[in-house]
Amino acid sequence: MTERLYEDDSQLPTMQARVVASGPEGIELDRTVFYARGGGQPGDVGVLRWDGGETIIAETIKGQGAAILHVPASGAALPPIGATVAGTIDWDRRHRLMRMHTAMHLLCSLIKGAAVTGGSVGADRSRLDFDLPNPPPKQEIEAGLNALVAADHPVRLEWVDESVLDTNPSLVRTMSVQPPRGMGRLRLVRIGDGEVPVDLQPCGGTHVARTGEIGRIAVVKIENKGKQNRRIIITPAEPG
Q1: Higher local confidence (pLDDT), 234 or 173
Q2: Which of 20, 36, 52, 83 is deepest in the core (most CB within 10 A)?
Q3: How far apart are alpha carbons 28 and 19 in whole angstroms?
Q4: What does the alpha-carbon distance between residue 116 and residue 162 come to, in Å, rounded to a whole number?
Q5: How would DSSP label each residue in 125-181?
Q6: Is the pLDDT score of 77 beyond 60?
Q7: What does the pLDDT look like over 177-189, one tens digit per residue?
């Protein structure tokens, strides 16, 4: 099992860890700050360094059970099993992904009552698909997103008993993907203070600490992707 340090602190760019397994298909560590691809968010890239060598990590994916595999670049050196490695993620890329993933939660909060049918997080362009009969007003959505960004709401992580899904199934907005069960606890992302948050839903991804970090967002387009499917594409309106 790989301890997922990013689940409790998305702001960690580096770590030290011990090599559990090592091969061209992936390097398994006992702990990591590298996010494993999932939930529409790409896996982290970066570098692992050890005494006498280093390797570029081209992708991070989920392995068997609770393992995470750090996939080395083709032909890269491999650390020996048992070695201590220092890992560093590509922080600029990660932070862009964190900004966009959090922006997608804000977008969810604006499309009330509609289930999410799909989505993809990108550093420069992201999308969410909603089960909606009619497309929402583009300018209204963009204005709503930027008002939530400007309000600089706090973004917090909460661990709760997974039975909360039995008593409050509406927490889950996605139609095709359900939060993992069987671990006993569930990770929620809460945006905003007060009894009624801006957004509250299960999520295993990485997020910024406050919505103000996101920066202005542009709604690129709203597309029809079927009789009941509306795709909203967003992108940062400002570089950074």
Answers
A1: 234
A2: 36
A3: 6
A4: 21
A5: -EEEEEE-SSPPPHHHHHHHHHHHHHTT-BEEEEEEETTHHHH-GGG--BSS-----
A6: yes
A7: 666 666 778 999 9
